[in-house]
Amino acid sequence: VTSDVTWQDSLLVGLEGALLGCAYYLLSCRSCGLAVGFILYSSGSDLAYLRDLFCFFKNSIICYLLGKQIIIEASKVNFPAVTLKK
């Protein structure tokens, strides 16, 4: 992750959705301040494999394709399917 992504020192707790009951740090864009993902700090066993990883919201990032030297929205890139289970 580059210096364009920041996170707050305070933990947030998920109150609904896939992160219900989880503690996490919110990742934000340094330029515009929008949330771009999270770092999961504490969770149940079903999300344990994501702890301490930088998890980005696919619709919030832009990708640079090295081979083609173009920039595209991440939503147009074929990522392996990984979902947060409820």
TrEMBL record:
A GO BP annotation: CENP-A containing chromatin assembly
One Pfam family here: Yippee-Mis18
Cellular component terms (Gene Ontology): chromatin; chromosome, centromeric region; nucleus
Subcellular location: Chromosome, Centromere; Nucleus
UniProt keyword terms in alphabetical order: Cell cycle, Cell division, Centromere, Chromosome, Membrane, Metal-binding, Mitosis, Nucleus, Transmembrane, Transmembrane helix, Zinc
Domain Mis18: 1-66
Matching InterPro entries: Mis18, Yippee/Mis18/Cereblon
GO molecular function: metal ion binding
Membrane is among the record's keywords: yes
Transmembrane feature ranges: 18-41
Function, as annotated: Required for recruitment of CENPA to centromeres and normal chromosome segregation during mitosis.
Family: Belongs to the yippee family.
PANTHER family: NEUROGENIC PROTEIN MASTERMIND (PTHR16431), PROTEIN MIS18-BETA (PTHR16431:SF3)
Protein name (Swiss-Prot/TrEMBL): Protein yippee-like
Organism of derivation: Chloropsis cyanopogon
Gene: Oip5
